[in-house]
Structures are given as C-alpha cells and as structure tokens.
Design a protein that fits this description.
The protein is α+β, with helices and mostly antiparallel strands. Helices cover 29% and strands 23% of the residues. The chain has an eight-stranded mixed beta sheet with strand order 1-2-8-3-9-16-10-15, covered by helices on one side. A four-stranded antiparallel beta sheet has the order 12-13-11-14. A hairpin with a 4-residue loop joins strand 5 and strand 6. The longest helix is centred in the C-terminal third of the chain and has 22 residues. The two termini are 24 Å apart.
C-alpha cells in the first residue's frame, strides 16, 4: 500500500486521547487502530507483532544476513490525536495548491487563509492533504505511523538492502503526556531510537522544553452581592489576579525559539471555587525551575493577602529537555542529518517548542532524537500535510536504518 493511501486509511480512525481519563489507554478507541496496526505488521512479515493490554504496539524486523551484530535501532510514533480539536469523522481530501486561500468548507465558510498561514507559500504547485475544516487531520502523528509502516513494507519487499534489527513501537496517549508511561524499553530491545513526530519536512530535533503542569484552585467566600462589602472573596477575581501577576509577555502568543512561557489552558468556576490549569515551559533548566518558583511565590502572596488556604497550587513535572541525554550520542543526529541529505532533504535543526515520547524515553535510558513527519499546523482544523513529504520521509527512514546509511 502506498504511504498516502495508508495515511488516509489511518486518519479515518478516531484515536483522540483524553486528558481527564485515568484509564490506560485513556480511550479504548485508540486500541482499535492499535490492533489493526499489529495485524498489518504481522502480515507484512515483522516478528512478534502484537498490541499490549495498555494499547502499545510492538514488532521487529530481523536483521539481514551478515548484519546481526549491528545494534538494534528503534522507530517510534504515537497513534493518538490531540484533544485540542475534534478528532472523529475526519474528512481528508487532496488538493492541488495553486496559491491563495484554501476553502476547506464552503458550506460553513471555513477558509485557510494564506495571509494567516504563511507556510502555504512554500507549497505552491504541490498536493496537500487537508480536512473539511471541522476536525484536525491527524498527521500528528498518524503521518509518522504511516511513514514507519511504509518503510518497513519497503524493506520486507527489498531483502537485498542490508540492515540490522529494527524495532517498531507505536504508543497511545502521547498527546496527554502519558505516551511513555507504560513503554517497555527492555522488551522493545533497541539500543537507540528515533521518534517520528516532528513538523515540516527537514526538521531534526534533539532538544525540547522542560515541562510542568500546574493546577491553581481558588477558594472564595460567596455573599449576597447586596450585603457583600468587606465579606465576599470572589474566587473568580482572585483567579484573575493570579493571572495578572504573571509576566504578561511570557505567554505562547509572544514567545518563540528558546523563549519559555506560562500558558493558561483552562479556567472554570464561580465566586466560591475557581480552577486554573497551566502548562509551564522552558528549554533552560534553571529558568524552568525559576518559573515554578514564580508560581509558588504568586500563590503565597495571594494567601498572605486573602488568608491562608485561599489559593492551592499543585505543580507536577512532566518531562525534561532531552539534549543532555542525546549529547553523548550525537552520532544519532549526524546519522539522521546524513540520511536526509542523501534523500535531497535539507536538515533544519530546531528546538522543539513542546515535547515527544522521545524526551521521556531518553531520560529512561533510550536515546531518542525526533524526526519530522512533514505535517503542518498540528492540533487544529487547519492542519495539513504535503503528499510529497509523506513519500520523502519513507525514503529518509529507509536510508536511516540501512547498514550503509
């Protein structure tokens, strides 16, 4: 099956994960795709292809004769899609982009405007896979899944290409920060690996944000507004004050590159109880720790002002910058760079303004840089992927895992 057809097939599965679920995986529907992938890998000849009870898919392609001594290399992608936009009923279609705006949905008036999405100008004359504007596409990370499976299919069809043992792993729940929670590194069997979970063609990443989540709960006192003077403590207003005390320019809308941020992702409540959810990000570990201390100082200040226990703060580290774990294995970056260049792709080494399963896995003993998928505008209804990027990444992966690569 061609990688484009494979990708279109995979995005038809609803695999959205759920950050409010405590099950593993967080949604059972992820296992529907997982089961199909395990069967597909087995059918094409990979060994021990199976899905675990937790929804992880593993398989491996044996080394070709004479390459048994080459350390096993892993390729990893995630099956789930982001909760940030609808993920079911994806209506994907291929359009030839000739410039200007793309009408995604005529009936609903949903348009991807060239003035807002500057990346489009690079793809004039190319075929793009887009949505109907009501869901995300799912290139994050079903493009990575499709590219890995297609690379394995190519290698099984071309046994003359020398390669060591290749381990394949597909994870659930990456989008809610739990993709590496139950990953069986020992059973996976790889000495090193790559996640295929990045953005536009050429991106090669080995450093990412340090990340924490924060939950701020404000306890107020609600009094009838007609007699509330000097008595009411409005939890909504105290929550608003918490937001105002953080640096206003240090939010995602005003930062780029290596600049960190505080991101308010959800706020709900009333006069009595209000909850704010934050994510905290910074590439530099010292600045990351200082951001968490800023949150703590802000909560302490408001408790001094409004009374002990008014503001509760819960901080939880999520993952760390993988760079310090990759630097002793920089040959992985050099190898990926060489594979891209051999396939006519210009490498672009950029810091990830987010995270991948590879960040967690690197800290758990599996060095794991991140490769591009070719997708653009992840986590939203304007997501798209050029068809040539899917094809080119299959070439890159085949080159990367071969003994001569």
């Amino acid at each position: 099956m061609h990688v484009i057809d494979r990708f279109l097939k995979y995005v038809s599965y609803d695999t959205q994960s759920d950050e409010n679920s405590s099950t593993v995986p967080t949604t059972e529907k992820q296992k529907v795709l997982g089961s199909a992938l395990a069967a597909e890998l087995a059918q094409m000849g990979l060994q021990n292809a199976h899905m675990t009870e937790q929804g992880y898919v593993y398989a491996w392609l044996p080394a070709t004769p004479g390459c048994e001594g080459i350390p096993c290399m892993g390729l990893i992608a995630h099956m789930d899609t982001s909760p940030d936009a609808p993920g079911g009923g994806v209506q994907a279609r291929i359009v030839r982009y000739e410039g200007g705006d793309i009408v995604l949905n005529q009936e609903k008036g949903i348009v991807m405007r060239a003035s807002e999405f500057e990346s489009l100008e690079k793809y004039v004359g190319k075929d793009l896979i887009v949505t109907d504007g009501t869901t995300l596409l799912g290139a994050d990370d079903k493009a990575g899944v499709a590219e890995i499976v297609s690379a394995m299919e190519y290698l099984t069809a071309h046994p003359e290409i020398p390669h060591g043992r290749i381990a394949v792993g597909f994870t659930p729940d990456e989008e809610v920060g739990a993709g590496a929670d139950c990953f069986d590194i020992e059973g996976f069997g790889a000495a090193v690996a790559y996640t295929v979970d990045g953005g536009e063609l050429g991106e090669l990443e080995y450093e990412n944000f340090n990340a924490a989540g924060a939950k701020v709960v404000v306890h107020g006192v609600n009094i009838h507004p007609g007699s509330a003077k000097n008595k009411m403590k409005n939890a909504l207003l105290i929550g608003h004050e918490f937001v105002s005390l953080l640096p206003p320019a240090e939010i995602p809308a005003h930062t780029e590159g290596y600049e960190g941020f505080y991101h308010l992702s959800n706020m709900a409540g009333d006069e009595t109880w209000t909850e704010l959810s934050y994510i905290i990000r910074d590439h530099d570990r010292a600045r990351f720790e200082d951001r968490k201390r800023t949150m703590e100082r802000t909560a302490a200040y408001l408790n001094d002002k409004y009374g002990a226990g008014t503001v509760e703060l819960e901080l939880k580290d999520q993952y760390y910058n993988m760079r310090e774990k990759i630097e002793p294995h920089m040959y992985l970056v050099l190898k990926a760079r060489a594979a891209m260049e051999a396939c006519g792709v210009t490498p672009l080494e950029v810091p990830i303004r987010g995270g991948t399963d590879g960040a967690r896995l690197s800290y758990e003993g599996l060095p794991c840089p991140n490769l591009c998928t070719g997708g653009v505008n992840f986590h939203g209804v304007h997501e798209y992927i050029p068809t040539f990027a899917l094809e080119k990444m299959v070439e890159v992966l085949v080159r990367l895992v071969t003994a001569e690569g």
